[in-house]
Amino acid sequence: MTSPVWHPFTQHGLNEPIPHIVSAEGPLLHLADGSTLIDAISSWWVTTHGHCHPRIAAAIAQQAGTLDQLIFAGYTHAPAEEVARGLIALAPRAAGQPDLAHVFYSDSGSTAVEVALKMALGYWHNLALDGLADARSRILVLEHSYHGDTIGTMSVGERGVYNAAWTPLLFDVDTIPFPAPGREQACLDALEAACAQAPAAFIVEPLVLGAGGMFVYSADLLRAMAAICRRHDVLFIADEVMTGWGRTGTLFACEQAGVVPDIMAVAKGITGGSIPLAATLATTPVFAAHHSTDRARLFYHSSSYTANPIACAAAAANLAIWREEDVLGRIARLAQAMAERLTDLAGGPAFANPRQAGTIAAIDLVARDAGYLSDLAPRLRAFFLEKGLLLRPLGNTIYLMPPYCLDASQLDRIFAALHAAGEKFGLHA
Ligand SMILES: *Cc1c(COP(=O)(O)O)cnc(C)c1O
Question: Is the pTM of this model over 0.85?
């Protein structure tokens, strides 16, 4: 019987296998047929401490029997209050920059970014109402960015086959070239010139551009970008949806640059990867621009499940794990183990451009011919599946983003499969 389920990012016409998973624990996924996969990409970058973490699962069960859902317009509950205070306490901070002090909840990374964009335009709109500034509405974006799949987030992301059908719906943005090695100054110069045109905001994925190809850039560049924005009064939006929750080696990537964004979007690992939740953090000036006795200036955004108590309870348990356990130490050890193996892999002829930030590691497979690229990723996916691994290459870029509980022998299995993939699919094969 064919399934009625329409899967995301899946071409059903290719009839690729769709494994049926029945349970999970730590870095492992168990299949209906009794076999096991190592989840080497944290089930789309969300699972941080491991699947079915007992503490998070217990918090969900407890909250589900206490308060399951509550309208969040005009009402509040303890888990939402606790998580908001916890996020503020853990958020990046730096002398001389306004603190992130306000938390707006939503349900996914895409909505957290949409909210960030709406806050940025709302900020300028409300300042203009008071004659304090000209209304600004243009958004600056970094080349190769990914910020989500809704209309607004596709608008600020890289254009391509992924969104070609919806181009007529997407709004115009100004694109700053990615600071690839040798082009750092060109990137900063372009940002400076674009900022001089008084745009509303610049949105970036700090340190690592994820879905666009796992491109990394330095903390120095991130700091320089933020400084340019500050000098021109352009709001700096950090999309920490992927980079947050320890992925790059610090809790948030912005910390490494000493940058406090004006607006910061978090999602993915906020509940340890257990249940959907997202938050957009804002500084007091951004909040204050909406704070008034005038109802026309309130922040017009909500969804039915905003700050769902069960999701917030999961996030509270995640925050407690971060406070009480040496998660950063665990991440540092895993990142070191990944670095050693990545260096070894990069020494072979089949791979190029190794790059890493914390527990995100990527490398390009030098494939046999470019025309082959289009079906290389699914072929690699099938190859890894056969080897007991959940991996999902982006074109010829193979990346790892494992849960922090992955052990050395599991990492060895992953890298053995990468070596084998190089032999089978590499140019020199
Ligand atoms: C995944 C991702 C998003 C979108 O998050 P969803 O929860 O999938 O909507 C946004 N920004 C970045 C950087 C991401 O990696």
Answer: yes
